[in-house]
Specification:
It contains 16 helices and 19 strands. It is an alpha/beta fold.
Length: about 500
């Protein structure tokens, strides 16, 4: 590569066409690399996949600015590639012990709803919480999210020694659950906002209060994607191809080849060897550490101890009618004892008797659902990430009944017949994403320094760079895309020099 003069020089192989790999491929091809993306599945997307026409992975599209920047840098507009509908209702919440509450894109409207739900004091607490969330986001978006993984000292330097008060206000030494108690006395509201920890696969009782920034991310905009989240993967693949990247599907990479102490290409499962000047690995980094890509790459990244894995899930993709509850696009149904749910998953490695149920009603918000008509649903409950040691398939009938019982108690009636509902367990997720145990978010960022335990994109093997939700800046569609952009910047710098390892942020509104 030549840093952008237009001359092509050097092949880069990207292993995995998840969001991180797709973003890296688009940026690398735009910068002049000969990019080849190898994906063992039949289509791009990684965790963004569909079963029976139902999105079976991520369902929330936020931090649109990351994708706008990716397209704009290639001279394109995201609006020409995706049909996005900004959500009015962020999520609808219901509790088994009673109560229903919507959060809205408009903060004032949410505060009014919270006041009606729990009183004026709680509404004031919500407004203070929103301000605190925005402050944390301002402090960390450029210094952490959009830059290569820092050490604690690096983070202080990036934020600036003159702004230590801002870094102090991120309160990483407090748990999210504890910090929420400063704003909310109503237990149901602490449940609602404590759920933000699960967006990164964590327990709100162990994750740092820094995750309050998720509230600001949602208030900055949640979009529904017409056609489903797989359209995002298709749009990113198209962008990469228009920049010159090539894709091979059904290509299972068995080994990262190493020559003279540097990644030099890959060997496919059928024996074919492909040379490259650099390799981007868009998979769970534990697969490298556990030798799943050969002994040469075994020491390239740290292993993720089983006990440090993030949440897994049991999901059902269904096409069934519903009744009794006015579903929004995103819905969350709670039982009473939230602490028990995470104690079960992370300590006892089990699923509690009444798990929280997330329901994505994928036909709501972008079209009309007629009463009694079948609609596309994703149901999800949290589960321990032990899919490589224990198969929950025999427990599925009981788990389904416990899930449906909580929904019924909240007023929602539906069925999960075998002929119209497809389950996925942690074992199924582990098969799709090797070495993860079914963990959907890489390493859990528990504790004040848990975020720093997540590896960065730069591996210990020269020429091998990592991307995806298991590396910095973390899980989720936008964060994985950012990791891909950071990986591409690292490759360009390593091979050609002259590009800083951070991504430009949009100008403040």
């Amino acid at each position: 590569m030549d840093g952008g003069t237009g001359r092509r020089r050097g092949r880069v192989i990207v292993i995995g066409a998840g969001v991180g790999g797709l973003a890296a491929a688009a940026d690398l091809a735009r910068r002049g690399a000969e990019v080849l993306v190898l994906e063992r599945a039949a289509a791009a997307g990684g965790k963004m996949r569909q079963l029976r026409g139902v999105d079976a992975g991520p369902t929330v599209f936020t931090m649109r600015w990351i994708f706008e920047g990716l397209f704009a840098d290639a001279g394109e507009r995201i609006e020409d590639a995706l049909d996005l509908v900004e959500a009015d209702i962020l999520a609808r919440h219901a509790w088994r012990q009673g109560g229903r509450l919507d959060l809205f894109a408009d903060i004032a409207r949410s505060a009014e709803a919270i006041g009606d739900f729990a009183g004026a004091a709680e509404a004031r607490g919500y407004l203070e919480f929103c301000a605190r969330s925005a402050d944390i986001h301002r402090t960390l978006v450029g210094s952490f999210i959009a830059a290569e993984r820092p050490s604690p000292l690096d983070l202080v330097n990036r934020v600036g020694w003159g702004r230590l008060d801002a870094l102090w206000r991120t309160t990483p030494w407090r748990t999210l659950w504890g910090a929420l108690g400063q704003h909310f006395h109503e237990p149901r509201l602490r449940q609602l906002f404590g759920r933000y920890a699960t967006y990164t696969g964590c327990s709100p009782f162990l994750a740092p209060a820094t995750l309050m920034l998720v509230a600001h991310v949602e208030q900055d905009g949640v979009w529904l994607v017409r056609g489903g989240m797989v359209r995002v993967a298709q749009a990113l693949q198209g962008l990469a191809e228009r920049q010159g990247a090539r894709f091979r599907f059904g290509a299972h990479v068995a080994e990262v080849l190493v020559e003279n102490g540097r990644a030099a290409g890959v060997r496919l499962a059928d024996g074919e060897c492909l040379a490259a000047e650099a390799v981007v690995f868009n998979g769970d980094v534990a697969a490298l550490a556990r030798g799943m890509l050969g002994d040469g790459a075994r020491g390239a990244a740290p292993d993720t101890p089983d006990a440090a894995r993030s949440l897994s899930a049991v999901t059902w993709c269904a096409h069934v009618p519903t009744s009794g509850f006015p579903l929004a696009h995103h819905n969350v149904f709670f039982a009473e004892d939230y602490a028990e749910e995470f104690d079960a998953v992370f300590r006892r490695r089990a699923i509690c008797a009444a798990p929280t149920v997330y329901v994505c009603a994928q036909d709501r918000g972008t079209g009309e659902v007629h009463e009694g008509a079948a609609e596309r649903l994703l149901l999800l409950i949290n589960a321990p990430p032990d899919g490589d040691r224990r198969d929950l398939a025999p427990d599925l009938p009981e788990l389904a009944e416990r899930t449906l019982a909580l929904l019924r108690a909240c007023g929602l009636e539906l069925a999960l017949p075998a002929d119209s509902a497809t389950p996925t367990t942690p074992t199924g997720f582990d098969a799709l994403f090797p070495a993860s145990g079914g963990a959907l978010y890489g390493r859990a960022g528990h504790g004040a320094t848990g975020t720093f335990a997540r590896p960065g994109g730069a591996s210990r093997l020269p020429g091998l760079v990592c991307a995806g939700g298991s590396v910095h800046p973390g899980p989720g569609i936008p964060m994985a895309a950012m990791s891909g952009r950071l990986a591409a910047a690292r490759v360009v710098e390593d091979l050609a020099g002259g590009i800083r390892r951070s991504i430009a942020l949009p100008a403040p509104a």
